[in-house]
Amino acid sequence: MKLNPDITDLIQDALNNIPNGTKKAFSFPEVDQKELLSHLKYLHLKYPSIFSEPDFYYDEYVNVVITKPIDR
User: What confidence tens digit (pLDDT) does each residue in 51-64 have?
Assistant: First the structure.
């Protein structure tokens, strides 16, 4: 799967801004939602302990919970 670097950067920035050992829900309304959903489904399959299964919510944006593990 070829990942869009703009979407990848947004997701990486979100992950970097979460304190270790915590989780936070995110939506990224500034990008194409179908493409974002595809990216997040791929990341969920590859890293299920970090990325929850993404879904569309009432606001018509894709939402995902990202969990940042504790560094060892």
Answer: 999 988 767 889 99
Rounded Cα distance between 28 and 13, Å, is 11
pTM beyond cutoff 0.90: no
The number of beta carbons lying within 10 Å of the beta carbon of residue 20 is 9
SS3 42: helix
Closest CA to 68 of 27, 28, 29, 12: 12
Q: Give tens-digit pLDDT for 36-51.
A: 999 999 999 999 999 9
The tokens for 33 are: 């939602």
Centre a 10 Å sphere on the Cβ of residue 61 and count the other Cβ atoms it contains. 16
